[in-house]
Each structure stands twice: as C-alpha cells, then as structure tokens.
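Lecture 7 notes: from sequence to structure.

We start with a single chain of 252 residues. Read the sequence below before looking at the structure.
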Amino acid sequence: MTNKIALITGGSRGLGKNSAIRLAEKGIDVIITYNTKIDDANAVVSEIESMGRKAVALKLDVGNTSSFGDFIAQVSQTLKDKWQTEKFDFLINNAGFGATIPFTEATEEDFDKLLNVHFKGVYFLTQKILAIINDQGSIINLSSGTTRFSNPGYSIYASMKGAIEVFTKYLAKELGARGINVNVLAPGAIETDFNNAAIRNNPQLKNMIAANTALGRTGVANDIGGIIAFLCSDEAKWITGQRIEATGGVFM
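Now the structure, written as tokens:
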C-alpha cells in the first residue's frame, strides 16, 4: 500500500510545522514549503524523518503566481524521485503572514500583498496543482476567526480570508465528483511568531483574549495541527464544504 502524502504550504514554522509533525504521527509523509526560512524547514524535515516518515522541503513564494509552474514541476519530480509516484493526497493551504493595518492607513500595496498571498495565490496554486492530487484526496484551506468577529486592523486580512471561505464551498462542490473533500479551518489567536508574534509579545492582549475565550486561554500550535491531521483522515471524508472554527470559543 502506497503511503499517503501531504503538501503543506508554509510548513517551516507555526501551524504548518505542527501540522506536518501531527500528520507524520498519523503515518503520512509530508512535503512542506518555505519562502525564506530554509534552516527551519530543514529542521522540520529532519524531525519528521527521525519519526520514520519521509519528508521534503521545497521553496515557494505563494504570492508569486508566475513561479507556480516551476514549483509544480519540482513537486512532480520530487514525487517521482522520493516516492516513485505521480500524485499526492492532501493539500493544506497554510502559508501566510499577518499585518495589523488600520483601515484609514491601508494602502493599495498592503492590499495587493495580502491579496496575492492569502487569496490569489491559494486560488491559482490549487487550480494548477489539482492535476497531481489523487481522487479521494482532501484540501484544507486556512482561514481565521476574524471572519466571524471584527478585530481592528484586520480589514484586509480578514476580507481575504472571507474570500477563501466562499472559495472553499465552491471548490467542494466542483471537486466532489472526484471524491475530494474540501474544508476551511479557522483558528483563533494562536501563540506563534505570526504577525510578529503579536500574541506572545503582548501580555495585555493575550490576557484580554483569554478572558474573552470560553476555554480561558489563547491557543497554541498544537491545538490546530491535530485538527488538520483529522481532516486528512478517512474518518473526516464525509465532511466537506464546511467552515470549522478552532478558537476555544472566543467572543461567543
């Protein structure tokens, strides 16, 4: 039986790293991408290999759609060389960056950067790589709790994530005939280095969020990786087109 293979964009740190490790714990091999942090990506690969699974790190700038053709060719070659196969099973569109920009100060440059990474890049990478995803596979898109509640300064970021949530439903409908289920996972405030480690570096903000969360704390990466691993399992195959929020019950 051929091992299942997952491709995680932005897998060198934070939620992507944790997801890669949790998938490996479930017996799934992993391709992760990185943009600049090659040493961190290689460390994730080494950790997964130490668990007896196969892993590869490939460079990808999700905001640069013109690079996708070369990237997908590299994925195809990697699948052939490392796994002696032509396709993979699970796509996790995780790569991204945070930016707190008040609406009155937002520029077109800010808008375009967030658009290219969080929506346009996800849309066209998924479209172009679809040919090498196995039937009965899964796609998981990352969104944000900020599509449900408003967080000042996130008007651009959350709008792009809102677009991803609509896109996910259309993708689920259009790929259903191939047995591919597609879902969106919306984390809340997570203590990673996302958005310049805004939660970790601001105790006052962290305490405020914890006080407004049903489970009484902010999230950590390990709260999210296991959900992604579940969504890549056979047990989750009947779930598709859904927005799954993992915020610990913030701002309920």
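Helices lie at 14-25, 38-50, 68-83, 108-129, 155-175, 194-197, 203-211, 222-231. Keep this in mind for problem set 3.
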